[in-house]
Design a protein that fits this description.
Distance between the termini: 32 Å
Strand content: 25-35%
Shape: globular
Largest sheet: 5 strands, antiparallel
Structural class: alpha+beta
Helix content: 10-25%
CATH class: Alpha Beta
Number of strands: 5
Radius of gyration: 14 Å
CATH topology: Metal Transport, Frataxin, Chain A
Number of helices: 2
């Protein structure tokens, strides 16, 4: 699990009330822009309480960066194993950790200059 040390962790569970999409985001330590792209674990309450593990863009701002197509293709190719339904206990925690590590390794393989917003 040494992969996690390359990331700062931020989270949102809501301000004053529970968030509709609580999440934990993993942002590269050397990439300080909060309005960028990053691996994320989110609980999708509006979608049968699924846990989604994927690489996402900041939803508050439209972002453009060189690796956008690579990341979109990666997410598309891995969509089939990005969701876990936690109410039914139909997954193993090992599956979640493996998916997180896979996403983070892919993310770390992209040169930092391709992740910078322009």
């Amino acid at each position: 699990m040494h992969i996690f040390r390359d990331f700062d962790i931020s989270c949102s569970f809501g301000k004053g009330k529970t968030s509709s999409t609580p999440y934990i985001a993993f942002k590269l330590k050397q990439h300080k822009d909060d309005k960028g792209v990053y691996p994320r674990v989110a609980i999708l309450k509006s979608s049968n309480h699924k846990i989604e593990i994927s690489i996402v863009e900041s939803y508050l701002n439209k972002v453009n960066y060189k690796a956008k197509h690579k990341i979109q293709q990666y997410d598309k190719d891995n969509l089939h194993n990005s969701f876990f339904i936690y109410q039914k206990n139909s997954f193993s925690y090992e599956d979640i950790i493996n998916k997180m590590e896979k996403d983070m390794n892919f993310f770390l393989s992209i040169p930092i200059n391709e992740l910078e917003i322009y």
